[in-house]
Amino acid sequence: MPESYHPLRIFSGSAHPELAQEIACLLDVSLGKSTTRHLPDSEIHVMVDEVVRDQDIFIVQPCSAPVNDNLMELLLYLDAFRRASAHSVSVVIPYFPYARQERMAKGREAISARVVANMLEQQGARRVIFVDIHSRAIQGFFNIPVDPLSALPLLADYFRKPEFADAAIVSPDVGRASMAGKYAEMLNLPLVVMHKRRTSFSATETTHVVGDIEGRRPIVIDDIMAGGSVLRQVDALYENGAQGKAYFAVTHPVLLPTALQRLDADDRIEKLVVTNTIPVPPEKRHPKIEVLSIAPLLADIIQRIYRGQSISEKLTLL
């Protein structure tokens, strides 16, 4: 890294220190020292354990479960860095919280993603970096620079193998069709789109399949897997003639217990390929899950931002 009046520093909250450490190693800088404590009354206390005056700080904190604790911790660190006279603080938040609450679907609902954006900005974030956010509109909630990255190239590279020559890229719904189209274009594979109807807040039903899946191995893509409802959609694919075991490519492995149970129960699912935007603890390390590291992408982006270089070629605006 070039000498600078404002040294580059990487810090981490408690959500995913392994990812932050990997990024720091790739950038050949030491991981900053900080301490997070959860007090007996459930309050969170944070402390920056070294001088950060006039430094360019990048803090890595995906806000996966426990979402509210991780988000509050991030906000407190922003306050601590600001009060410690850091030159700038950029937030690397690979998994953005409340991203599925970006609009009023019904009257009298909160637009929670906007609330999160306001809090980050008001607490002094100079820049925000996230990966495969559920709704692209959230970028417009900010008045500061936002870098919307995608794990698509990383995940697509995994499927550049002869065994997937007869595959088809499957979008689980119309909303993910644009992302699926990028996969199909990069891999030169046909595109299939499933239409679904939401029957409740957590349940969906596939109504029909558009595209030719007959005789092809399905590669189902999505940005988030939580309860694993998308895993049930393979029924519709095999009813329409899909062949071979199904693969899933998902950026954010939230993986609630129901998702792991469905992986266990369905022998037609060969593998779930995910990234480490959020940690995958041992209890979620299912034999069918393969984790790819997002750290090289994030390290490259951080380095380009710090050096004042263009990052436009790295942005995938789906």
TrEMBL record:
GO BP term (any one): purine nucleotide biosynthetic process
UniProt EC number: 2.7.6.1
Broad EC category: transferase
Residue span, Ribose-phosphate pyrophosphokinase N-terminal domain: 8-124
GO cellular component entries: cytoplasm; ribose phosphate diphosphokinase complex
UniProt keyword ATP-binding present: yes
InterPro entries per the UniProt record, alphabetical: Pribosyltran_N (IPR029099), PRTase-like (IPR029057), PRTase_dom (IPR000836), Rib-P_diPkinase (IPR005946)
Superkingdom of origin: Bacteria
Keyword Metal-binding among UniProt keywords: yes
Catalytic activity: D-ribose 5-phosphate + ATP = 5-phospho-alpha-D-ribose 1-diphosphate + AMP + H(+)
One family name in Pfam for this protein: Pribosyl_synth
Record-linked PANTHER family: RIBOSE-PHOSPHATE DIPHOSPHOKINASE FAMILY MEMBER, RIBOSE-PHOSPHATE PYROPHOSPHOKINASE 1, CHLOROPLASTIC
Name of the protein: ribose-phosphate diphosphokinase
Provenance organism: Litorilinea aerophila
Gene symbol of the encoding locus: prs
